[in-house]
Design brief:
The protein is of the alpha/beta class. Among the domains are: 154-236 and 326-551, Rossmann fold (3-Layer(aba) Sandwich); 573-790 and 828-873, no CATH class. 55% of the residues lie in helices and 9% in strands. It has a six-stranded mixed sheet with strand order 7-10-11-4-12-13, with helices on both faces. Helix 5 (117-136) runs parallel beside helix 11 (333-350). Bound molecules: adenosine-5'-triphosphate. Adenosine-5'-triphosphate (ATP) binds at residues 163, 172, 190, 192-198, 209.
Length: 876
């Protein structure tokens, strides 16, 4: 009995517990219902924020049409600028006018093919005369350059350069001396690897790598930092913008290189003058041409014209000294002669000093030079008048003899003489055969040169320029010189065949005591062999034996009047560079027009794929997909233009190296020029997507979508630019950006949610993922605080999918559950905040937006740092 009572008591207790549990469950259900009610009350239905189908058409159709017209406009602009003749033909055809065929002029023909350098020069001189006459008061079509602001005598003494290597210091230039005077063209010549470029860079104050010794004097004073304002360096490879024409190119360089405060009229006059002097007066409106960033080939100037334009912009800023790195390389002989003759003419007219490296010149090119510095294995074998080089080798060293019929022009023979790497040509006669003899010849010349210098000190001022220089028709007749010749080594025949008479003597007697310091070649080379045998290892001991470098000291302490000349201000640089960027972009059909077309067509494609999404559960899911794809599209789009960033790098490195403008001016100009076009592309494509897909059209939501998209696109683009700058080439930049893009994709929180990652620590990379911030911002913008009606229930197809997915879930097939899923009732509401909860997008929208902006600023800072580093690293 008692046990029955116990059982009843236990039943009662269980019943009481069950009742309590039921009451708690009911309370919890009531609480959940209340929470849901509050949540529903807190969200605004999305429905009213959506436009109806007609209104959406009115949004995307005009945007799409505008985008296409915009692209066509810039395409037309680019094509008409790049091909004006085709444009005039189109205009004539459209207007029904009779096409006027223009008979090609001699200038056009000349421009189309190189090889008419002389004719181009004559035509240009006549053509440019008018412009110049206005500026210069010259008459009769004669082009004379305005006197440069300050004639300069450049003297260098004991120049040396050595590089560190695992084996110790390796000298590549040793004890090189020389002098260049106003109105002179000096050639730096020698076999490959002899040190021409090293010497040119040292003279131009561009050399910073290696252990540098010796001194460079400007009019007798140590060269100061202002030297760069009175000198110009013209690299071998030009850095011209293909989309600009000749005049625009000159305007660009005159704005950047002429002293601040130069009036526009004076700048224009100078431009006319230089163009005419360089024989480019006929091609003022011609495009430079070349391969555009993006790959299009643009027809433009011929190789010779391009080189002349490159030289013209180098001398625009009225420099006193111009350094040219192999100005004739890559040109056929006629074009090379045209360039060098024009240079010579400029030198004679203006008192300019030109120092240029040359390879094996042809006779006409050789004839244009006044002085030559002959190097071999970093040693100076000769410096002095070109015409006297033969007499030094023949008379001074007893080499040769030079037979023009057999050996070619003097420069060819001299190059063969000092080249010890290759077998000498047949019939060379006595020659320099090995390193010891080369060293001995260099020492003999050094002694001879210094003795001459002691006898006649170098010209220390501008008026030390050779007398009668400007009057000399080709510079050759001055070889004899006079007392004012300073360092001229010795007498010479004035017809350029100096030394031919001496050859007989030297061949017979072994050297002219006057020239060779009394030692014949046999004696010199014997001594050299003895010294070499006696253990004098100059190749390794030389650098250690040199005095402490005085190069930088000279630069720092030196002061000359050129310090006062200031180039363009930061603002002028900025304006000029913005102008260049705009011209380059607008005239490149694959740039402005191509980008807009790409944006609108892809937006249109995406709109068709996600066409007119409904406001139910399915539509919500697809909206999330569309937002993710939109994010990815913005991330991937800049890849199309990676080659352009690589081109930007090349251009700015060359310009930094020439110190044309500051890094900050370039950077600011680039951003300012790009921003409007990027904004236009993103806004137009966003409007197309919003309209076609059916995204939130509240003005604030549209604004945020556009703003976030612009910032994110700029960021993706900036990463590409950063990669192009910090990596050595396009392939490396590609690898870096692919790695970055992969992180963005995997850490977007869409393909795999962070909370679902089994290796959760990997999700730490999310902080690097800009796509994560952008996607979160777009989700929050689209769904936060919104709700959609679900009275139509779930898609029957989806319910069927659930049933086949869970075949044992009988509950799913009960009428109550089916009714709840398919016909949930008129008051059913989908709270879209749940979407944000699902993705863990819990922070306010401004947090994601701010993170994106800070990210962008960070990448800008890194890119700017990379550019600064690049500008400093561009050392030679
Ligand atoms: N940064 C460097 N480090 C080590 N060696 C260098 C460096 N730059 C140049 N050299 C060496 O210095 C020597 C002279 O080079 P340079 O470029 O001045 O000769 P070059 O006469 O102009 O040759 P080329 O006519 O072929 O252009 C070469 O042997 C070259 O290998």
């Amino acid at each position: 009995m008692s046990s029955i009572n116990q059982i009843e008591a236990a039943d009662k207790a269980l019943a009481a517990q069950a009742a309590t549990a039921a009451a708690q469950a009911a309370a919890a259900a009531a609480k959940a219902a209340a929470t849901a009610q509050r949540a529903v009350a807190a969200v605004a239905p999305l429905g009213p924020a959506m436009l109806d189908a007609r209104q959406r058409v009115a949004l995307w159709v005009p945007s799409l049409v505008f985008g296409i017209l915009y692209a066509l406009f810039f395409l037309g602009l680019a094509l008409t600028t790049l091909n004006p003749k085709a444009w005039s033909d189109v205009k004539a055809a459209v207007l029904g006018r009779k096409r006027r065929l223009r008979r090609p002029s001699a200038d056009d023909e000349c421009g189309a093919a190189e090889g008419c350098g002389g004719r181009a020069k004559t035509a240009a001189l006549a053509n440019g005369g008018a412009g110049h006459a206005a500026a210069n008061g010259a008459s009769g079509g004669e082009v004379r350059l305005t006197q440069i602001h300050r004639p300069v005598v450049l003297t260098w003494e004991g120049l040396g350069c050595a590089y560190n290597s695992p084996a110790g210091l390796v000298p590549v230039l040793q004890d090189v001396c020389g002098e260049a005077r106003p109105g002179e063209m000096v050639a730096l010549m020698g076999p490959s690897g002899s040190g021409k470029s090293t010497l040119l860079d040292m003279l131009a104050a561009r050399k910073t790598l290696g252990r540098l010794t010796g001194s460079v004097l400007v009019n007798g004073k140590p060269r100061g930092p202002g030297f760069r304002h009175i000198s110009s360096y013209v690299p071998q490879d030009d850095n011209l913008t293909p989309q600009m024409n000749v005049v625009e190119t000159c305007q660009l360089y005159s704005a950047l290189t002429l002293p601040a405060g130069t009036s526009p009229a004076a700048a224009a006059a100078r431009m006319d003058e230089v163009l005419a002097a360089m024989g480019m007066g006929h091609a003022r409106d011609r495009l430079v041409g070349g391969v555009l960033p993006g790959g299009l080939l643009l027809r433009g100037l011929s190789g010779g014209e391009r080189k002349r334009l490159w030289v013209a912009v180098g001398i625009l800023a009225t420099p006193s000294v111009v350094f040219l790195d192999e100005p004739t390389t890559g040109l056929d002989s006629a074009a090379a002669v045209a360039v060098v003759n024009l240079l010579h003419r400029t030198v004679v007219d203006s008192g300019l000093t030109i120092i240029s490296s040359i390879h094996q010149p042809c006779s006409a090119v050789w004839a244009a030079y006044d002085e030559v510095s002959l190097l071999a294995r970093g040693r100076l074998l000769y410096f002095g008048p070109c015409a006297e080089m033969g007499s030094w080798f023949e008379g001074g060293l007893g080499l040769g003899p030079w037979n023009p019929a057999k050996h070619g022009i003097l420069s060819d023979w001299a190059l063969d003489l000092v080249s010890i790497e290759f077998t000498k040509p047949e019939g060379m006669g006595r020659s320099i055969e090995g390193p010891e003899e080369l060293r001995a010849a260099a020492r003999a010349f050094s002694r001879h040169y210094r003795a001459k210098r002691l006898a006649a000190p170098p010209a220390a001022a501008a008026n030390g320029a050779r007398k009668g220089k400007a009057a000399a028709p080709n510079g050759r007749a001055r070889a004899g010189g006079d007392a004012s010749d300073g360092a001229a080594p010795h007498d010479a025949d004035s017809d350029g065949s100096a030394g031919s008479g001496r050859a007989v003597r030297s061949a017979a007697g072994g050297g002219d005591p006057e020239l060779g310091g009394g030692r014949g070649w046999d004696e010199i080379s014997k001594a050299a062999k003895y010294e070499a045998g006696g253990g004098e290892d100059e190749e390794t001991d030389w650098a250690a034996a040199q005095p402490a470098p005085d190069w930088t000291a000279g630069i720092k302490e030196g002061a000359d009047e050129s310090d006062s000349l200031q180039r363009a201000s930061w603002m002028t640089q900025f304006r000029t560079l913005v102008w260049r960027e705009l011209l380059s972009m607008m005239r490149n059909p694959v740039d402005v027009a191509g980008r807009m077309l790409c944006f609108v067509l892809l937006a249109c494609f995406m709109g068709l794929v996600f066409w007119n999404l409904d406001l139910g559960a399915d539509g919500t899911r697809n909206r999330v997909n569309a937002l993710f794809l939109h994010t990815m599209f913005l991330l991937l789009m800049p890849f199309v233009y990676l080659s352009m960033y690589a081109n930007d790098r090349r251009v700015c490195v060359a310009d930094f190296s020439a110190r044309l403008y500051s890094v900050s001016a370039y950077y600011a100009a680039k951003q300012a020029a790009v921003l409007p076009f990027v904004s236009a592309n993103v806004i137009i494509s966003n409007l197309v997507v919003i309209g076609m897909v059916g995204l939130n059209t509240q003005p604030s939501a549209v604004f945020v979508l556009c703003a976030v998209s612009i910032v994110f696109y700029l960021l993706a683009q900036q990463v590409q630019s950063f990669a192009s700058i910090v990596t050595p080439n396009q392939e490396a930049a590609f690898i870096l950006t692919i790695a970055y893009t992969s992180i963005n994709l995997l850490m977007s929180n869409f393909i795999m949610r962070f909370r679902d990652m089994a290796q959760h620590w990997v999700s730490g990379l999310r902080w690097l993922s800009a796509a994560n911030y952008a996607f979160s911002a777009l989700l929050a913008n689209q769904f936060r605080g919104t709700a959609v009606s679900c009275r139509q229930g779930l898609n029957p197809e989806l319910v069927g999918f659930l049933e086949s997915l869970m075949p044992n879930a009988r509950l799913l097939r009960t009428s109550a559950v089916q009714s709840m899923l398919l016909r949930p009732g008129d008051d059913c509401v989908l709270n879209l905040n749940a979407v944000l909860d699902y993705f863990g997008t819990t922070r306010p929208l401004w947090v994601y937006s701010l993170a994106l902006v800070c990210y962008l600023l960070g990448v800008h800072a890194l890119t700017f740092w990379g550019l600064l580093r690049l500008a400093r690293k561009e050392r030679r």
